[in-house]
Amino acid sequence: MVATGTTATVVALAVTVSLPCFLYGAWIMIDNDPVTWGVLTWHLKYIVTGLTLTTVPLLAWMAPRLFGLGGRSSQFGGYAVVHALVGLTAYAFLAFGFTGIVRVFRAKWEHDLYHDYDEEILLDEIGGDRMDHWRTRLRVGVFGYTIMWILAWLTGLTRYAIRYL
Predict the structure, then answer these.
(1) Sequence-separated (6 or more) residues with CB below 8 Å from residue 133
(2) What's the domain count of the chain?
(3) Domain around 94
């Protein structure tokens, strides 16, 4: 059986490696205009990798330890709860932003703007009167997720240092 400290180190490294994935994925979207299908899939490769590096350790190791599942003693208290609350808030922002992503993606897909980009067509024109609302939800979700993810990462690293170093 792998020692808890070793597993904690692997989890901390996996989550830490996701940060450059998120940053590079964001840079791809910021640096490329227009956003074509190739740019979108390039962006998503990094974002999905970052989300996987964060979510798999969360579901496989962090959550079971927090609630004492699998024969472990519960760690539900103190700094662990702060870390969990901040992390869950990050995922709530991600879900909120996802509601906007779906609408923007659907509008661009229906008008084939990922393959045949037309600079004359504005997103607000093709998405109806609510497109600005969905784009705002996307931005709030992405920025909220990023800020809360960084706070969760920092609280997690602090907790790791207190427990294992």
Answers:
(1) none
(2) 1
(3) 4-164
* SS3 sequence of 102-136: HHHHHHHHHCCCCCCCCCCCCHHHHCHHHHHHHHH
Specify the pLDDT at position 42.
Answer: 92
> pLDDT per residue over 100-150, tens digit each?
888 877 877 776 666 666 555 555 556 566 778 888 898 999 999 999 999
Residue 158 reports pLDDT greater than 90: yes
The neighbour count for residue 8, using CB atoms within 10 Å, is: 19
- Look at residues 137, 151, 123 and name the one whose alpha carbon lies nearest to residue 95: 137
**Of 101, 79, 81, nearest in space to 89 by CA:** 81
**65-88 per-residue burial string, b: 16 or more CB within 10 A, e: under 16:** bbeeeeeeeebeeeebeebbebbe
Interval 71-90: pLDDT, tens: 565 566 678 889 999 999 99
Q: In Å, what is the CA distance from 126 to each residue of 39, 72, 109, 137, 165?
A: 20, 53, 10, 17, 54
Q: What pTM value is reported for the model?
A: 0.82
